[in-house]
Design a protein that fits this description.
The structure is a single chain. The chain is 45% helix and 21% strand. It has a 7-stranded mixed sheet with strand order 3-2-1-4-5-7-6, with helices on both faces. It is of the alpha/beta class and 247 residues long. The chain has helices at 2-12, 34-43, 46-70, 86-94, 107-119, 135-139, 157-170, 187-201, 212-221; strands at 75-80, 98-104, 126-129, 143-149, 171-182, 224-230, 239-246. It starts with a helix and ends with a strand. The structure holds S-adenosylmethionine. S-adenosylmethionine binds next to helix 4 and strand 2. Residues 55, 81-83, 86-87, 103-106, 109, 131-132, 149-151, 154-155 line the site of S-adenosylmethionine (SAM).
Length: 247
Amino acid sequence: MRYTRAVTTARFRRPAPAPRAQARPLHAQEMFGARAMRRIVRALPPIESAYAAIRFTIMRSKLLSVMDLLLPAEGRILDVGCGFGLFAAYFAQTQPQRRLTGIDTNARRIDIARSVMAKLELTGHELLVGDARAVRDIAGAGFQAIYVLDVLHHVPRDDQEALLACLYDLLEPGGVLVLKDITTEPWIGLKFTELLDRVMVGWDEPLAYRHHREWGEMLSSLGFHVRMVRVPDVLPYPHVVIAATKQ
Ligand SMILES: C[S@@+](CC[C@H](N)C(=O)[O-])C[C@H]1O[C@@H](n2cnc3c(N)ncnc32)[C@H](O)[C@@H]1O
């Protein structure tokens, strides 16, 4: 009898208050950015739109998500060699508090990048024509993060270290430089990538790939703390993502 009453009392005891709901629920729906990518592809003229669809197939949401998580959710972020601004428009959408500065030597690409940002109503970002090494003169320094997406192997071998040194100076202390490039192994992966790069740029432009270990050593010697991951793909691209933090 006593036992029954005890059970009954426990059952009708006022339940403990539920933990307070989080003010901003955690969600990951944009983590894979499919909607952001679709909007960018639609905002471009036909040929560039086809190019963007291919770029997003090569870059894959998995790779972009790795980079998205390495970049801060707010602050000034520099996109070196931004081209048509595909990834500036992508990272601006996934975290709207970011302020993107894209720079490219190709004025036509910058024009298109500006129109994509305008069509998608992404404001507060700047897209500049110029050499990345001249960013300080055009846009000032003090970036929280910089990313360089498949650009370094298009920079002449002898200029690569000077460019990275310049990017080091543009970063705030503690800022991160995110590099996505192609490493040189396996050999078959490198040759596959080189063939496709040649289709895009022709035979005259120098292509200067390096092994990820070489990039790591160069960045460490410049004063960065370096971490890196290789990101396997169904296509044989030997992708590598490097996060280099200014200490
Ligand atoms: C292969 S495209 C990559 C474009 C873009 N990052 C992407 O992933 O779609 C390389 C871009 O880097 C630009 N570029 C090369 N060297 C540069 C430099 N020193 N400063 C600024 N842009 C540069 C080229 O004009 C070109 O648009």
